[in-house]
Amino acid sequence: MSSSNSEFIYIWFYDLPVRLACHQQGWQLDATVAIYHIVNTRHIICYASHTAKQAGILIDMSVADAQAILPTCHFRCYDDIAVKNWLSRVGQWAWRYTPLTGIDSESLGIWMNVTGATHLVGGIAAMCDALQIEFNQISVSAQIAAAPTYGAAWAFAHFSEFIARPSLQQNRPVIMCDERAILRQKLQPLPVAALRISADIEAGLRQAGLEQIYQLSPISAISLTTRFGSELVQRLGQIIGDVSELQKPLIVPTPLMASKNYLTPLLGVEAIQKMIADLVHLICIQLAQRHLVTRYLVIAVQRVDSTIIRRTISLSRPSRSEALLHRLTAHIAAEIDVEFGIEHSWIEAKKLSAGLPVNQAFDSSLYKDDSKDTLIDYLTARLGHNKVRQLQPIDSWQPESAQRVQPAQQTIRQLHTHASNRLPYWQSQDHSEISDNINLISFSARPLSLLTPAVPVDVIALLPDHPPSMIRWRKQNWQIYQATGPERIGPSWWLQSTQTNKYTNNGKYSNNSKYSDKTRDYYWLETQSGERLWVYREGLTERGESVEWFLHGFFA
Amino acid sequence: MNKQQRFETLKNEIWQNYFSASKAQKAISLDVSEIDDCLDGGLTIGRVHLITGSGYSGAVRGFTLAILRKVMHEKPSGYIVWCTNLNSSDGILYGAGLAAIGIDPARLILVDESHPLRGVAAMEEALNAARQNGEAAIKIAAVIGDYAQLANSPDLWHKTARRLQLAAEQGNVLALMTGITARIIPAAGFESYWQVSTAVRQISSEQIVSDNRFYDSASWHVKLSRTRSGRQWTGNLSWQFSTGTLSHKPAVNVQTGYRVPTRQFVSHVS
Asked: Rounded to two decimals, what is the model's pTM?
């Protein structure tokens, strides 16, 4: 990549994490914001806004120290995924200038290999100007540099303050380096960190008194290699173009497509079934040829009146199994209203990934039974994404927060993307534990049916802190036969914004955002007719709180 | 092929498909010999069974789950499809409670459908998913639907029963239709009809405290009012959570006294 005619542009978004945090949280851009990352359980600040720095927040400072200095500062954990996604979008946007672009998420930048493409916009200077204008228009701070090598462009973008800027007179913070002859001269004043060397090599160089690149020139490559390893010499060669450097460009797989045209309009369910089967067969062949698997299929038909009808199939795990796809698409023919016939149809496979075979004998832990995934995909294809659900455990003491009913495909994806030991699990799932550990039963006895939200009931209790002796619910009086408890569950006081959903005493449902900070005492009751109920008393009389009773669930 | 040969071929086909021993449906024993005798060996897989109760959902759900636990034990790799209305005022299934009685919620797939007709269609789809003509048969242990209120419309009810019966036969999957209704509903077309209500357990205060009996079992009054054999059964069943076994228990005289055992205070206050 490093030929004498190469031209690279590097764009450094130096305050990207801060801006993303402000955008996500709705903070002002001039707010005091600090971004931290977690290092060995310590929260260390890695980026800070200009105003935060002015207030005394320093990089590598702990969050606790920063909070002491500036209590009003907003803190947020570094979101690596959001940064990568944003850079990827900008990298794809930059395809309008050149097809070879890539992201450098560690350094918060994107690079563009604009070799042979600059003349289209009037030269590399004009291209840098255009880029600068585009980013200014969307209020994104960017430092842009151009150079004959990737390393030099990276260095000029990150350390532009160390070099003379003739272009500043033209109100353009871009360092132009379109002549390789002057590249060495321009690099001389830059610090050694501009070589993209590791932190320990940089520390070693500083310890030896070598702080700028020009100080390395008189030292032979053999001496540098002996003292600091081969990386330093390699980086020196790459920055001036003597050593080639390969960059991984941004590639987004284009969706695969197969289509069919018909001379006479296609009519009838059987014909459409065959059409869909043919399309699935064609797309499976393409997927197999490219060793890809898909997670999303779009089947579209164009009627004779030019109306286009689309149907989508979503898979919980990537596949190119023709039998599976036939099964998932079998119902589509009956759903399409063809009217006067179909003259064109196509199928697109999206969300592609590499379909690598798994050797079952090599590692059986990698091979999972996909019967459940197939069942969920089948039901989702026919009934809809939000209709097919699963119970997902959540680590919470609050009974109503301890499970989530979420789309089953989402659960499958979480299982495939997370390490199994990081997922929450159902308590006492192994039933053998229950008979061994009596305390576990008494502490975790939970109902089979949970009322969400809990329903207020009228009760009669002999004493204020006793379980009820009678309950009235749905115009029915239940005399309590026996009772036990209570299990006291405290409120989630740290969730200040939690919404509490309850029925009011007049039977109407209310969704208020007032935080319920009352402690609950849960009781297990059995009525004289055998019903087993789970009720709780909200509020403690010893604290002088008002007391309310709620029915929260039923046992078997 | 002459007419006689055609008749013989047809007779063989009918015999193979409907009466041959190889096609005999497997049955799930309920551990109670009297009930198993009434059912000719137990709950038949590949058939639709009707379970209803009055009052609230606890007894019907509990009895259904007792059956499901046995089915899941018989088919350890099978999944349960439960078609229900997740916004029902009777409450939703609670995973922690299911896990505590030995049912893995991860093997439970819920289909949220409030309209009974669409719910029955979803049940049919789930039963069809277990058909063997695909490349890989999907392992379904049972399909449950909480749509017995459809019996209010007799025409739809009979069609529903017939369609579900056909789908259950083809998929060879146990199907359960459940619902909360106070009245007796027509059960023609169903393999069996169960009416379940809660029953009081005989537990002493000491047992509640020392053995945690309060949480370890459930008791129901069960009436098996329709079977293929024509025999009926009525009695009290007790379900032990720790072992998953059902047993016949005599009825208990309800005590009118109000008993509060020694307080067991458990705290999760942060």
From this structure: 0.67
